[in-house]
Amino acid sequence: MPNFKNIIEELRWRNALKDFTTGADSELINGNITCYNGFDPTAKSLHIGNLIPILGLQRLQKYGHSPIVIIGGGTGMIGDPSGRSDERKLLSLEKIEENLQGIRSQLEKFLDFDSKKNPAKIINNAEWLKKINLIDFLRDTGKFFNINNMMSKDSVKNRLSRDEGISFTEFSYQLLQAYDFLYLFKEYNCTFQMGGSDQWGNIVAGVDLIRKISSKNKAHGITYPLLTTSSGEKFGKSIDGAVTLDSEVTIPYKLFQYFFNSSDDEVLDYIKLFTDINQKDFEELTSVTIKEPFKREAQIYLAKEITHLVHGKKGLDDALRQTEGLNKGNWQVLTTNDYEDLYKNSDKSSNLQRSKIKEGITIQKLTVDFDLCKSLGESKRLISQGGISINGNKILDPEKNVSDKDLKANKIIILSKGKKTHKIITVD
Fold first, then answer.
1. How many CB atoms sit inside 10 A of residue 153's CB?
2. What CATH number should be reported for the domain whose range is 7-224?
3. The model's pTM
4. Which CATH superfamily includes the segment(s) 252-329?
5. Residue 138 pLDDT > 80, yes or no?
6. 215 falls in which pLDDT band (50, 70, 90)?
7. Which residues, 6+ apart, have CB-to-CB distance to 21 below 8 Å?
8. Exposed, middle or buried, 179 (CB in 10 Å: 0-12/13-18/19+)?
């Protein structure tokens, strides 16, 4: 059962509510509604920034509302300019379909599609967008859109201020998203659209369209705060180093470490936003964090909760075991499967050709080639001090050659400087 009086109280407490249209709060409090959030299939996997709207839908369902997930098989062919500084790369139909299937399987982990009372639905907007006749669309829908208003949207203004500008294709995106809302309103009595704060302009466009066409005047929109990178950019699928929800792309260990490394300034906010912690437990955790921040109990709690949420018990167990081995030096707990995971999720720029091993390469040179040491002299000094190890085994001879015996799973070396600096080297 919810620990809050209503969904608005919970969203506000969790700082998961950015903007909403007038009257949206009372509609959510006083009745059960149908709501939707859209995800364009621009990649095979969703990312951690998407957890915010996903958890928003999950929380709404918990309070008795009916969530719809729109997979943008149609809009994904156009490209949303929101939060972008450049034009999106147009994807092939085959790639879009592949991405659709990947996203669909992920969403099924978070929402209840079998509920007898308010089951979640997944719908592909290509079902109706591909059937649109251009002339009919311009006459029946386009006439309700004012160009001045469309150009005033942040997603458009930001692009117009750049030399590259914006294509008519992406400029028209807000018409299609608005039409999605209108279609769901008519066919599913869906009265709420949710999204990140960068979607506010698109959401309002849909709300306005429905209110112009329908006499019911019940369309509303809600936005959530965006998760951003340390540089302030929207944390999305297209940003290098994005942490995804796909265990084949981002292994549970990496997801765990991402949140474990949250700063003291942000970890408590993340706990509110990403977990189901109640107020009492949160106050207790906050007190411990303030008094004894060095214990990192808040970071541990956050990392465990999110890893379990995304990858289940097995994923969490794998992450904890790999953390024990890699981060605490307890190497014997690592299994062959652990090394396989580390291999498939390693930075492939850290690659050592197997021919180099056959030719002969010393540990000393290896540390320099893979940027663990700045010079051969530094490497020799650290090795003599017992500061360099391979797979947890200290190396004392700087002239020792790397051999096949040093490989784990016959394809990976974990080269370490001290206890905290590791380089995962893949051997091909």
1. 19
2. 3.40.50.620
3. 0.85
4. Tyrosyl-Transfer RNA Synthetase (1.10.240.10)
5. yes
6. confident
7. 204, 207, 219, 220, 221, 222
8. buried
